[in-house]
Amino acid sequence: FTKTFHHPPIERYKKLFEQHADEVVCPCSSMASTYGSFTRMEAIQHQICPSLFVTDEERVSLTAHLTNRISAYSANDYRRFLSAHLQLLVGFCQLSQRTINTTIAQFYATLFVTKELLSQTRFDAHVNMMHKQIEVNTPLRITQLLRVIREIHHGHGAISTYGSNYR
């Protein structure tokens, strides 16, 4: 016999699937939902990005006692580079955060489409695989962006203000 359930709660679905896995069908030709409707991701930044070192206040505080004339310091004196390196660090943190946010937003908007009912185990495995792909691919996207920046600077022969990239 056939019994129809309209919008069954997840508990009933699980019980029916356990008891009648081969017989439970969905009358839909396909099922689609965005990943954002049933999953959440949380990015964990490197500990340096949320630290004081990437705030303007800290950068100003660390460099306040330095003179504006970088020629006052010897070529090997790190005080020449400190402000620029802190600004670069801020830029890297912002770039990685934007890339992560964009990647997660794209994932949330992506449709999960299936023509068959999935067991909880298969569903969880699929979602975990998608999360793992994002976890692996996002750092690669950031690295590719940094490579492009490096190649542009190298290809154009740009010389830094400090002259440290050609000595």
Describe the SSE topology.
Layout: H1 10-20, E1 31-34, H2 56-63, H3 82-109, E2 111-114, H4 120-156
Antiparallel strand pairs: 1-2
Helix pairs in contact: 2-3, 3-4
In short:
By secondary structure, the chain is mostly helical.
Question: How would you describe the overall organization of this protein?
Answer:
Helix 2 (about 55-65) runs antiparallel to helix 3 and helix 3 (about 80-110) runs antiparallel to helix 4 (about 120-155). The model has no long low-confidence stretch (mean pLDDT about 85). Helix content is about 50%, strand content about 5%. The chain starts with 9 loop residues before the first helix and ends in an 11-residue tail after the last helix. It has a two-stranded antiparallel ribbon. It is mainly alpha-helical and about 170 residues long.
What distinguishing features does this structure have?
two-stranded antiparallel sheet, mainly alpha, 4 helices, 2 strands, 167 residues
The class by helix and strand makeup works out as: mainly alpha
Shape type: elongated
Low-confidence stretches: none
Would you count the extended β strands for me? 2
Strand content: under 5%
Distance between the termini: 83 Å
Let me know the average pLDDT: 83
Largest sheet: 2 strands, antiparallel
Major β-sheet strand ordering: 1-2
